[in-house]
Every structure is written in structure tokens, then in C-alpha cells.
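JOB MANIFEST
job_type = single_chain_structure
chain_count = 1
residues = 172
[input]
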Amino acid sequence: MAEDSRKYKVVLAGEGAVGKTTLINRFVTGGFSADYKATIGVQIFSKLVALDNDKEVNLQIWDIAGQTLFRNLRTKFFQNASGALLVFDLTVPATLTNLHTWISDIKNITNSIPFVLIGNKTDLKSLKSITQDEINAFIMEHFEDIQVHYNTSALTGENVEQAFLDLVKNMV
């Protein structure tokens, strides 16, 4: 396969503890770790992704700290992003509501980039507190920005690869 000459920067955005780091680890390594360590600032991962057209693209995946105290710092990490995964925790309603701020911050820094919405932690079925109707209402509010939505589990791997690959297809 011939490598695409461009590197594509993907940012993962969302509140702390929604599972951004575990989603990245599942996508990049195929593994899962239950050890939670808050991201401080940003962590950058890389993965070569094969596309259907016999090309490969190099993804730079930026795991951006979700804690509010990093808000002013994190906007700088959005520069030159090619796409964003917006992650919320299906068991914590505020994490979906708070994505409004993330979308606004990203749009203020970047040109029009594709967004994929991810409701994470489907494996916690008994704790789920966000309905599909609430997710659909959020998507309707941001229909110009959000290309697609997935419910995922970093623990089981459910829909993780599909979410990343869908974003890549919308970027290239």
C-alpha cells in the first residue's frame, strides 16, 4: 500500500472520565486497561490506517484533557485538526450536555471539520441514564456538524474501530 503524504490530526473531545483514553488504546493497540489516570494537557498517539482505495494514512490522535481547569490550554490543541470524536459517557447525562461547549470551542479554532459523536460505556447497561431520544435531540441541534453517531464500549471494543474509520472516511 502507498502511504498518503498527509498526516491527519484527530482530536478526542469530552469531559474527564468519559473514556477517551481507553477508546484510543482500544483503537491503537486493541487492548483495554481499567486503570484510570486523568490525562494532563494532551497525549498524542499515532496509527497507520489502511483505506479502501489501497492507501494508508497516518493518524495523529490527540487525547485532550477533559477537566475544566485545562479549558484555556486545550483550545490550542484543536489547531490544525482534521476531525474530532466527541465522546460522552452514557451513564452521566452532563457529559452529553457539556459537549455543546466542546463543539463551540473546536469550531472557534478550526475550519469546518467532521465530527463523530460517541456515546461510550455501552457495557454498563444497567447504569445507562441517557436515552436514544436525548442523543437524537442533541444530534438535531448540531446536525450541521455531526456526521454520524456510535454507541461504543472501550471494554468490549464494540463500534470503536467503526467510529474512528468513519471519521477518517469523512476527513480524507
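[summary]
Strands lie at 2-13, 42-50, 55-64, 83-89, 115-120, 146-152.
The two ends are 16 Å apart (CA to CA).
exit_status = 0
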